[in-house]
Amino acid sequence: MSSTKNIAFIGASGGVGLSALKYALAAGYQCTAICRYPSKLSSIFPSESTPNLKIIEGNAHDLKAVSQCLDAGNGKLVDYIVSTIGSRPVRNGLKMSIEDPEVCQKAMKTLLKALSQLRSAGITGNPHIIPFSTTGLSKYGRDYPIALAFMYLVLLKVPHEDKKVMEEDLFNSGESYTVVRGSLLTSGETSRTVRVGIEDNKTGRESEAIGYTITREDAGKWVIENLVSQRDEKYNNKILMITT
Length: 244
Known about the structure:
One of its GO terms (molecular function) is riboflavin reductase (NADPH) activity. Belongs to the avfA family. This protein is 32% helix and 28% strand. By secondary structure, it is of the alpha/beta class. The strands form four sheets. The protein has a nine-stranded mixed sheet with strand order 3-2-1-6-9-10-15-12-13, with helices on both faces. It has a two-stranded antiparallel ribbon with strand order 4-5. Helix 3 crosses helix 4 (103-120).
């Protein structure tokens, strides 16, 4: 891995992704971000003050744009891929759906296809993929407070099913990863300690962290500080549950 980390961001125009991008840029990493409307990011990170940011116009389902984002130049892939893709929520009876019910799984399929095609073209590298997911998907027991059971099992069923497919595609890909499942996301920044639970997709729960919420700002900061800046090997190819 190069001394200067290269990070590709997918879904960084808001929320957890925007927070993660902010901390990555502040750390001096070379960052590339896909954005449907580049002005959304350039207005926050002007080129004159953030020369280490490259913005590519497109979306997470655009194979050409994703491929450009993953290519670090000089025949190398980026070192890390942070994906926080999502879709706007919509109400569907008792269920909370999203505008694109397959947004996350389509984005992961595009990402994996882009990596395959780039390698076939002779570009080398083994990026560590960090998709931001959600608690409530575990095969090994409840990882959210019992008081939120109706919300998780009924209201959020549609977006959760999408993220399940996204995760499974990554697990089966053979790529290096750390899946981050956040508890319910809120706004603002806190000084609260982020608690972390660890799960192995094949062998089960290794440690537990159950909580109600985590802010988008805290989540993005934690991802960069703990999975990029000081990457702990114990998180490799694991699922993490983060909450405060």
